[in-house]
Amino acid sequence: MIDKGAHLVYLSNMRILTTILPIAAAALLGACSSYDHSFIKEVSDIPLKTAENPGTDWASAPLRSHAKYVLYGAESQKSQVDRVGDYYFVTWYDAEPAKRARILMRYTQAATGSTELQTEKIYPVARPAAASRTERFFFTGEDRRKKGDILTWRMELYVDGKMVDSKQSYLWE
């Protein structure tokens, strides 16, 4: 036998929850997603040291996924070996899409000693909207085989020519 009073209380609580939860979730997501300045959220360094399958155990799943992503479409052994290297993914928040932005990566490689090298990605003005963006820096192929692994790195975010944020590897001086 169902207690009608308890059932009505349950239905009333469910109506409140289905009304309040979406509003609270939207408010929380809105608060978390709007920033007033541009900054680097995360730098992921995911190397691919070999074109061989990383393994089938669960602990190798992230490496296996990355290897499949990188090696997708590389049919010959040479093209697979050319994709072995260092992969950097920079996630950043672009709060000012009306201004020019630039991500500069300074780095050293095994065969270059302490010589600092650099590469950059430039974002022109008038990007669609303020949002999180991801940029990629790949070090592969013959150039990487000659110069070796990336040893140290520093990512710098510039907006309108001014450095607004940076992140670096723990060995960077």
What does this structure look like?
The protein is of the alpha+beta class and 173 residues long. It folds into 2 domains: 34 residues; 134 residues, Immunoglobulin-like (Sandwich). Helix content is 31%, strand content 35%. The chain contains 4 helices and 7 strands; from the N terminus they run H-E-H-H-E-E-E-E-H-E-E. Strands 4-3-6-7 form a 4-stranded antiparallel β-sheet, with no helix packed on it. The longest helix is centred in the first third of the chain and has 30 residues. The protein starts with a helix and ends in a 5-residue tail after the last strand.
Defining key terms:
single chain, alpha+beta, Immunoglobulin-like, 173 residues
Distance between the first and last residues' Cα: 73 Å
The rounded Rg comes to 24 Å
Oligomerization state: single chain
Strand content: 25-35%
What's the number of domains? 2
Spatial arrangement of strands, main beta sheet: 4-3-6-7
Q: State the shape.
A: globular
| pLDDT averaged over residues | 82
Number of strands: 7
